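Re-run with default settings, no changes from the original entry. Doing this only to confirm the output is reproducible before filing.
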Amino acid sequence: MRINKIMLSLAGLCLLSISALAHAGQPAKKSANPSVIIKTNKGAIEVVLYQDKAPISVKNFLQYAKDKAYDGTNFHRVMPNFMIQGGGFDKNITKTKTRAPIKNEAKNGLKNDRGTLAMARTSVVDSATNQFFINHKDNGDLNNGPGSYGYAVFGKVTKGMDVVDAIAKVPTGAKGPFRQNCPIEPVIIESIRLK
């Protein structure tokens, strides 16, 4: 009886060893939420994208990034202690091409807190295309709630908030179609790439 128990224990150890060897050569599982680097002429901003909570918004953003559609665009609307907005105009403040608007995911539970990225849109709920903004402070009034559908948060700055702060401080004024809040000197998005 004791020999049987020893044999069973040895068999169990062998199976564990085989299992460990089988998994040793496999790559570690990637996080469900990818990260991107937003390279600007003011520095780099690293962002995690909440694919698990905002799959439509993240897929849309990554497709524009993959198509290099953000390369050479700028942060065209800068409002300190509110947000910086970009992705839809080039350095000459000419509107860039967009794909079809996406569904608003503002009901995903994510909040427009400092450092989060959200999809910009018009007064039409499901009108977001390529423009996004980074919240410069907690903007609770932009969240989904009574009286407002809100703006869909889909990511958060993990490194480079100092760059966001620097962008928020640039001199702004009237430029192109904008009567105010447009940087006098362009703040260029040089590229957005997966990390």
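The longest strand covers residues 83-90. Residues 108 and 177 are 33 Å apart (CA to CA).
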